[in-house]
Amino acid sequence: MNILAPVRRDRVLTELPQYLRKEAALHVHKDFHPRVTCACQEHRTGTVGFKISKVIVVGDLSVGKTCLINRFCKDTFDKNYKATIGVDFEMERFEVLGVPFSLQLWDTAGQERFKCIASTYYRGAQAIIIVFNLNDVTSLEHTKQWLADALKENDPSSVLLFLVGSKKDLSTPAQYMLMEKDALKVAQEMKAEYWAVSSLTGLKLLPVSGENVREFFFRVTALTFEANVLAELEKSGSRRIGDVIRINSDDSNLYLTASKKKPMCCP
Ligand SMILES: Nc1nc2c(ncn2[C@@H]2O[C@H](COP(=O)(O)OP(=O)(O)OP(=O)(O)O)[C@@H](O)[C@H]2O)c(=O)[nH]1
Ligand SMILES: [Mg+2]
After folding, report:
1. Which NCBIfam families does the UniProt entry name for this protein (predicted)?
2. Of 81, 107, 156, 196, whose Cβ has the fewest other Cβ atoms within 10 Å?
3. CA quadruple 58, 60, 64, 67: dihedral positive or negative?
4. Helix (H) or strand (E) holding 245
5. Least confidently predicted of 2-11, 41-50, 205-214
């Protein structure tokens, strides 16, 4: 018996949302990996539909981590700063290619005095979102340390990384372009996908306002889902040896690559 309410209509993904910047994208394929599409059609996604994937959000204090999550999950924005103490989390349910998929978004504290508590929740993340303020270059510099700390508790070869510049509404186009140059460099170094968002402004497009917020979380969801299904297929032995996901340091804009061999089940 299914005791869960149906997934909200605006949380249904039928195609792969695209990256923001090609030069700092986890991969640039237009569609989901053919093996993933095929496995979903044939209901061979293993435990993916039952598992909850963990995503942690880290970064300096007051860069806007909580506001970003609240904008996506509740479509709210609080202009008053209330520091996160330790951690908070939100659950979001999606349906990707017909398969139920849940993300647990862990919102961690940026304040130094709470970092110790927050870091105990880093373990077991499938994706790490590192947030910096687009108007504060120091917060960008600190992202490398945040990543290093988060990776101590996780497997660097399987976790997906996202570098997110926040508060885009506060920079002029010229200021933004300057910051974006530096941010793209950092994203490339860490092999993270780069996004720029504003939790405050943006077109009032239902159901989530804010600039790039919905697009960003849909991309996180899709790529996490894709990686999960591929891992399941590998585990179940239905994938051929050599057809592996690997981090390829030689690819300038294709961090996560898969071999282009023909899938076994689909044309
Ligand atoms: N203008 C603007 N202000 C923002 C944006 N996002 C967050 N803020 C403001 O920045 C301040 C900090 O936001 P939070 O989301 O609480 O920051 P945080 O990263 O969660 O901070 P900690 O919990 O201490 O780590 C608040 O006053 C927010 O209103 C944004 O996109 N634009
Ligand atoms: Mg917070």
Report:
1. small_GTP
2. 81
3. positive
4. strand 245-247
5. 205-214
The structure's pTM equals 0.89
User: How many angstroms separate the alpha carbon of residue 188 from the centre of ligand 2?
Assistant: 26
> Buried (b) or exposed (e) across 130-163, using 16+ Cβ within 10 A?
bbbbbbbeebbebbeebbeebbebbeeeebbbbb
Q: Quick check: CB of 79 below 6 Å from ligand 1? A: yes
Distance 263 CA to ligand 2 centre (A): 43
Cα torsion 80, 82, 83, 86 to 10°: value is -150
Contacts of 159 (CB under 8 A, 6+ apart): 125, 126, 127, 128, 151
Q: Identify whether the C-beta of residue 116 lies closer than 8 Å to the C-beta of residue 63.
A: no
Q: What is the DSSP string of 39-90?
A: HHHTT--TTTTT-EEEEEEEESTTSSHHHHHHHHHH-----S-----SEEEE
Is the pLDDT at 87 greater than 50, yes or no? Answer: yes
81 lines ligand 1 (CB under 6 A): yes
Q: Which token pair is 105?
A: 């978004």
Polymer length in residues for the chain: 267
